[in-house]
Amino acid sequence: MPLVSMNHFLPRAKQEGFAVGQFNVNNLEYFQAIIEAAKEERSPLIFGASEGAIRYIGLNNVVALAKVAADESGLPVALHLDHGSSFDVVMKCIRAGFSSVMFDGSHYSFEENIRLTKKVVEAAHAVGVSVEGELGTIGGVEDDLDVAEEDATLANPEEAIRFWEETRVDAVAIAVGTAHGMYKGEPKIRYDIIEKVASKIEAPIVLHGGSGVPDESIKKAISYGVGKINVNTENQVAQVQVIRELLDKNPDMIDPRKYLGPSREAIKEVVKGKMRLFGSSGKA
Ligand SMILES: [Zn+2]
């Protein structure tokens, strides 16, 4: 199956009350671990690639790896640009073969965010590519993004509704209290904001910074209208733990397959657990 846009499964996810995971890729092993998990779970899937990951892996490599995974699995797989910072970056990714993009205009003024996001939606929808927009500022650190806690601002529900009405994005990331990276304490998710916005717009809400959020909170957020959840940090933590232990125990180990292989299994297990938690298992 070729790569599909998120509209292949997100409308159904919102209707039926489940969420599809966006699993970010950092190297080859992520593609392998994530697609194997999706195959075993029969789950739709979103590969997330940040601008940093694209620089690291290479734009054409990212697209090729995602295409092979989609082809061989027969599953509905979207390749999604995570936090695209400009119209140019978005267009580059679409031209290279991405089936979905996020345009993050959250650091612009509200009106400017709408204007720029609209421009992206027009161009992307013309070629069947889905778009995620962002409102409010999600705190924490992820790749090129670094938002201090005091600069993180929650989304205003009225603005979020207007943002969707004017841009018609296919998914809306709104800042509701989660943060990128791993939590130290327990995040206070503003379910009331999710509910208010989700009940007024067709598109599902996207939860960024889902790592470290308790399972019950995730389920609750999905029940209020979250239809897409981004996961990256937890996979990285699982991966590095395995590698660290193996190299500590075996200082002579030099074959990367000996430590990357087992760490790939660890990523796969995390992804499978998320697919079950999000309710996307069996929905492919
Ligand atoms: Zn994010």
TrEMBL record:
GO terms for molecular function: fructose-bisphosphate aldolase activity. Keywords: Lyase, Metal-binding, Zinc. The keyword rRNA-binding does not apply. Its EC number is 4.1.2.13. The keyword Ion transport does not apply. Its cofactor is Zn(2+). SUPFAM superfamilies: Aldolase. InterPro entries: Aldolase_TIM, Class_II_FBP_aldolase, FBA_II, Fruc_bis_ald_class-2. It comes from the Bacteria. This is Class II fructose-1,6-bisphosphate aldolase. It comes from Laceyella putida. The lineage of its organism: Bacteria, Bacillati, Bacillota, Bacilli, Bacillales.
